[in-house]
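Q: What does the assembly look like in three dimensions?
Context provided by user:
Components: three
Sequences:
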Amino acid sequence: MVEVKTLVSNPVLVIGAGVAGLTAATQLADFGIRTVLVDRLPIVGGNAMDLYKAFPTDDCSYCFEGSRLRPGIRKCFYRSAILDQPNIDLKVNTEVTEISGSPGKFQAKLSVGPQYIDSKKCIMCGLCIECSNAFCLPSPQCQPQAVIYDPEMSDEGAKKAEEECPTKAINLGAQPSEETIQVSDIVIATGYHEMKPVSIDEYGYGKIPNVVTQLELAQILDPNGKSGGALVRPSDGGQVKRVMMVQCVGSRDENYYPFCSKICCVYALKHANIITLERDGTQVTVVYMDIRTYDRHERYYRVARDAGVRFVRGRVSRLEACADGTLDIIAYDSLLDKYLKFNVDLFVLSSALEPPKGSAELIESLSLHPASGFVGPADLTSENAVVAADHVYVCGAATGPAEIPESVTQARAVVSMILQSRK
Amino acid sequence: MPSYNLYMGCSVPANYPNYETTLFRVADKFGIELIYMEGVSCCGSPNLRAMDYLGWLIVNARTLAIAEKNGHDIVTPCNGCFGSLKDVYHFLTHNADYKEKVNAELKKTGVEFKGTIKPRHFIEALYNDVGIDEIRKNITKPLDGVGIAIHYGCHLLRPQDVTEFNPEIFDDLIRVTGASVVEYPLWKQCCGATVLPVNEELAIRLARDKLKSMKEAGAAFATVSCPACANQLDLQQLGLKESYGEEYNLPVLFITQILGLAMGMKDDEVGLAMNRVPADPILEHLSG
Amino acid sequence: MTETEEKADPPAVMIEPIDISKLDPDFREGIRSMPNGEELSACFACSTCTAACPIASTWKYKPHQLIRMILLGMRKEVLSSEEIWLCLTCFECQERCPQNVRVTDIFFDCKNLAAEEGMIPDSIVGLARELTDKGQLYVVTADWEREDMDLEPEVPGLSTEEFKTILKGTRTGRIVGGDE
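A: Here is the predicted structure of the complete assembly.
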């Protein structure tokens, strides 16, 4: 067990409860530093929650590699870290609306969403879910361990659920609130957002149901998802036999995002491998400009080729939705200098990873250095890339597309910087 | 000194008795016993491999199996034979299924391939068994100052994991004669022999590029360790006068001829008259 | 005068793609199961093989394209290509392949498949006939040259009978069979 020391100090505000934010918050808390961890979503985990398997370990244990002292294993770790750690004040459904003050003495205004469910009372019995579609359990491992409520789906059943909830955990009349807290340091861990490529009209995203993004594919493949992990077409739930993926959709494109989104090649290949090796008889074709499986991730590419994933260097020339829900695709193969015609059930776009909503405002309000819309370091020549400004730190995909191990490493670097500053 | 099974192949005996005789003369000098293999024939060359892989495996496995009877390793003076034997040896010692299949066929001829002896090129045996120091003691007519371009030949060098040949062997055997090894840009490139039956024009072009590269790098001679390469580089020079209007006058000698001359053998002993491009300059050097 | 010039019609179809569904999906695995074909799938089309090849500049299908065509299942185009028979077998492509694809060996496999289907250059059929008739590619004719060199006029130990018998029982025999 980790010995918890409580130091008298101003708390640290960690914005974003994804992999980076969770790591920073739990480690700071372990060192006795009070931490306010906020996330705009009702559960923690960020994008990682939507990944069925995360590279490079193909599960989600990697980020906890350094936390072996903690009781519990893997996904259970969040629970022990967040619920058992008195130094963490977790605020979900919460956004930071304003930051003022000066370094070391920031005032952060928080807009706290209605707390419809008291997560300390919820026992996840499922009764409310039976009563109304407005309640759901995002995943068995979700944190907080509680159902979530969507007021836009509210119906008669919801009222019944409120009445019948055995622990009286539901309050449909909950109201949003605001509070201002004083913090000494701010850790920006706001992550990334996968671009919805609706404006790239040649791919038909948003118009053709069987055109999805990689994160959407991850959710189809998730055994906890609607299809139980079966690879099915969004249009009709029919089995997918042929998949085509296209890389660099909106990335490395001066019209959208000029940068390489860095991790999409690896997770596209991860998905291609899962489909080829674990979903019998499904053929995957990847259309690419360059495959950038940097560093040790090259193995995903090698495994993919060995497994029989087809690679076409070139671009999609045209795409046509057929009456049976399939797509006719002509791709130009620049290596052969030939056009190839495919018919597929599912067309997956490796869409650019963009800064999340609110990044620009956050950068503006703290006078940070923008880096392609993400948060850049205060000093480009400094070794401390995680220092965004005096008493302001950044880690994870808030710095730009990043993989989980990098996010964890950066989060730890942030913790180390804060500890040094308080010595 | 060791004894070897000598696998001549078909080209050296038919086309290059000068290579064959110098092979024996050099081997004799160092007490290497070369025993002509009984009951063997051609290796089939890459052409047999191209049209009939199994047939190629069987005939070469048979050669290896015959050598296994007396237990001596095989040496060959031909890169083509070397390539075939090495490749079949490598393949059958790494593929149990094929080994079984091939042995089922060989059984009919009364032999079995076990993989107990290894094929080598003659120059490997010379280098490893005799050694450079011992060879140096026998150099009586050093070729000091003569620049020689080595054409190693594709099937001697590649694929390296199969041939396991170290090109420095060739370099050292040239340098020990006092000659210098002329480095030239196309040293790795093919002589063109394999495509001669399919596209003569292309084959000639490749030989020509090779000779040009050697000549431009300042080579006074070229040396080869393969009859097919000799065909391309020596014999084709005559045709180049016609097809390209180019005259290279670059004498091409077998490695054993060069060693022989440097060890004091007479020009007729090494069969220099049989080399198509007259090797006069080397004789001038030796008599000078 | 201009009236005599024929006006070129635009092509009926601007793009005539290769229909993937019409290709042979088993070709890839077929080659992989042949000698030294296992690493075929490791190809990532870097084109090192083409860069290494001394003669690919003259080829319609370059080595890396032939490998791609195998992976895609373009069986007919690969096996009927003249390039596979023009391969020098110099192994430069194979030696330099960063993924250990045995390119030259794979072209040997392709030639074997082509030969099985009768797609084989006449000159190679001629060599097959030499091998089954004479039991070797080169036969000693000028035995006096051998004697001049102090060699036996006949090559000691040479025996072509077993060789001929073996090859008559394998594909070589079938290739020349029609003429027997």
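Follow-up: Residues 15 and 188 of chain A are 5 Å apart (CA to CA).
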